[in-house]
Amino acid sequence: MGQVYYKLFYHVIWRSKGNSPIITPKIEEVAFPFMENKAKRYRCFIHAVNGTENHLHVAITIPPSFAVSDIVGKLKGSTSYFLNMELGITKGFSWQDGFGVFSFSERDLPGIEEYIRNQKEHHKTGKLRDALERTDSDDVLSSRFPEE
Fold it and tell me: Domain boundaries in the chain?
């Protein structure tokens, strides 16, 4: 494929296995830069990454030649491997299956970045944007595709 012009922005959320509170500041310190470097290997760019003790938010640009699910899978899998096997700072660290993803426009990027950077504060004060915290599809699918 030749050169392609694109501006694709995604807000991705994924949780720790069992929603366990295992994402410590020490893990963030090594995992976030690792994910940013891993993303670059796939020509992706992480605009912001942050979260709480049990989930992460990532604002990312992914080229159209990659499926969002493939990139998210690579980021989740390689981060778990890096923490467990290469650094050995965790044992059995893993992510829950699945993730939530929302596309957004370039004009919304600053607001999304701010929301992600302030995750801990949002959760502490309860000032959450419910739609940007979803990681499951039950309500979304049932409301769009009612059973016949």
Answer: 9-144
